[in-house]
Amino acid sequence: MYFTVSMAMKPAVRTVWNALSGSAGSLCDTHLRELFAADPRRFSRFSVCWNDWLLDYSKQRVTPETMGLLHELWHAADVAGWIARMRAGEAINHTEGRAALHVALRHPAGKGPILHAGHDVMPAVHHELERMQRFAAEIHGRHWRGATGEPISDVVNIGIGGSDLGPRMATQALAAYRHPDIRVHYVANLDGADLATVLATLQPRTTLFVVASKTFTTQETMQNAASARHWLVQSLGEAAVARHFVAVSTNLAEVARFGIDPENAFAFWDWVGGRYSLWSAIGLPLVLAVGFDNFRKLLAGAHAMDQHFFAAPPAENLPGLLALLEIWNSNFLGADNRALLPYSQSLGLLPRYLQQLEMESNGKQVDRQGLPLECATAPILWGEAGTNGQHAFYQLIHQGRRLIPCEFIACKQPDFDLPGHHQKLLANCFAQSEALMRGKPLAEITAELAAGGMSPEQVALLAPYRSFPGNQPSTTLLLPRLDPHTLGALLALYEHKVFVQSVIWDINPFDQWGVEYGKQLANRLLPIIEGRTATGGLDSSTAGLIEACKP
Ligand code: F6P
After folding, report:
1. Spatial distance between the Cα atoms of 71 and 190, rounded to a whole number of angstroms
2. Does the pLDDT at position 535 exceed 80?
3. CA–CA dist 250, 269 (Å, integer)
4. CATH architecture classification, 108-290
5. Which of 164, 386, 391, 547 is buried most, with the most CB atoms less than 10 Å from its CB?
């Protein structure tokens, strides 16, 4: 099934799009095994190195012709022009009238200005970074004391979405770099079980809360913050709030209204999207978990990837290649999903983080002109750390009938070097992509079972169950090791991948109106559930569910 994109597609894009449809048609009967057999140089032809990284996409269902057309698609959609607009601080988030300048957050000091509305944002960015550094030094140096004079041992970040997933994922990813004296916890869910189970392990006198919210109005965060405040005040009194609560927000007026000392509020700006905000003060809990020097390395890694993305041609551009290959798989080969499979326990939360980054950014129905898209955009992203996934859902990838493009991530060196582990981990990762590519034809398994001494009747019975179709496309990203610099570059890689796709699909990746409607309806239902208003006007299902909850 081949798709066309928006009705308003630029003529140059449409020409390449049609050529790609033709290319997909001529490839559909070719198995990956045949592509490898036909070209002994397939790996070197379809892999790229960047510093000590390797991106192997030779197991994707592509030919040199496909790749040539995908590179043309990049040019036809004017990715370079959109990169320039982003870097110039233009309001490319046009539905909210905002720029998207997250690259400024990792732009090093002294490397020139980044302008927003005619003003250089870099002094404010570095001022806030310095405040974070000083604050972390006070906590780590045990100079910051709680209301009873004791140092802080536990930090609880209260936030959700972009104000939670980034620092939470990165704290786990950099577990090998954790500060020995500080434990950092994350609470996001409105379900009281989240906060209550964390609080049950803590002492008010040694706990610091970071309330992180771009808007400082998000229902989940405000409820959790209010309950945490109540827990603290009950034990230490109202005056303790100043020593046990800090905030991160763009809405400093609301922060003050909550009762947090403006001195203890860390700012960021409306040109930073929530899911792009890890690099701002939203990274504060990560700074407390791994130290400011490691956070700086994270920023430096992201900046290195920014420079690569801005300069490299599409054939060598890592974010660009990932973007183009997924467009090929989803819009031309018909895949509606992608499995993200990090062979790294530390990257276990990466699929969740990328779910927000990719699906909240590119899950859109209209193009930049407001015209309906004719194709689906962001494929469903799912996944889990290898090898755990192997014992859960890989069966479906190997023998189910869906097209499931897989993205493997592995590290050459382990972050926790227990003897006997890492080589087995790598063997499993590479074996999976090999098996998904090759498959095992019926003839091969038939011969294998017969050679093992099985009777012809048994062979005939069992062989169909034990053959594998293969031809499941995959990419493997091989990283040197998981350290702060590499993690920063990896996350920036995905941010730019999302951006390239948004340019090609001609959509705005920086708004998220779809999330708003549910919030609005929840606010309408709350007084009804609380029994303050009648259920009138509701559909029978919603009214019935509410009725069923009454005591
Ligand atoms: O899920 C919608 C959303 O607006 C995300 O984009 C954002 O990251 C999250 O809510 C949290 O918002 P805030 O940081 O304003 O609390």
Report:
1. 45
2. no
3. 5
4. 3-Layer(aba) Sandwich (3.40)
5. 164
Asked if domains 11-86+312-505 and 513-548 share a fold, the reply is no
Indicate the Cα dihedral angle 379, 384, 386, 387, nearest 10°. Answer: -130
- CA dist 181 and 377 (Å) reads 45
Kindly state if the Cβ of 66 falls inside 6 Å of ligand 1: no
Choosing from 360, 384, 407, 495, which is the catalytic residue? 360
Cis omega (within 30 of 0) on the bond before 387?
yes
Assess whether 412 carries a catalytic annotation.
no
Rounded to the nearest angstrom, the distance between the alpha carbon of 38 and the centre of ligand 1 is: 49
> Is the Cβ atom of 83 under 6 angstroms away from ligand 1?
no
Q: Is 307 exposed, middle or buried (0-12, 13-18, 19+ CB in 10 A)?
A: exposed
Indicate if 519 belongs to the active site.
Answer: yes
**Strand ranges (E), 405-498:** 406-411, 474-479
Considering only the top CATH level, what class is 11-86+312-505? alpha beta
Phi and psi torsions of 13, nearest 5° = -70, -45
Task: Check pLDDT > 80 for residue 1.
Answer: no
Catalytic residue (choose from 434, 516, 519, 547): 519
255 within ligand 1 shell (Cβ under 6 A):
no
Segment holding 319, helix H or strand E:
helix 318-327
Closest CA to 189 of 160, 232, 226: 160
- Ligand 1 atom closest to residue 165's alpha carbon, by position in its atom list: 8
Geometric angle at alpha carbon 40, from 38 and 44, rounded to 5°: 125
Measured from the CB, is residue 218 less than 6 Å from ligand 1? Answer: yes
Distance 218 CA to ligand 1 centre (A): 7
Fold classification of 513-548 is Phosphoglucose isomerase, C-terminal domain (1.10.1390)
Rg, Å, the chain Cα set: 26
To test the pocket of ligand 1, the residue of 214, 360, 508 to mutate (highest count of ligand atoms within 8 Å of its CB) is 214
H-helix or E-strand containing 38? helix 32-38
Is 53 a residue whose pLDDT tops 90? yes
Confidence at 6, pLDDT banded by 50, 70, 90: low
275 lines ligand 1 (CB under 6 A): yes
And the tokens for 346?
Answer: 């530390």
Where are the domains positioned within the chain? 11-86+312-505, 108-290, 513-548
Q: How far is the CA of 275 from the centre of ligand 1 (A)?
A: 8
59 is an active site residue: no
List 391, 457, 530, 550, catalytic entry = 391
The DSSP-derived string for 475-510 is EEEEES---HHHHHHHHHHHHHHHHHHHHHHT--TT
Identify residue 432 by its one-letter amino acid code.
Answer: Q
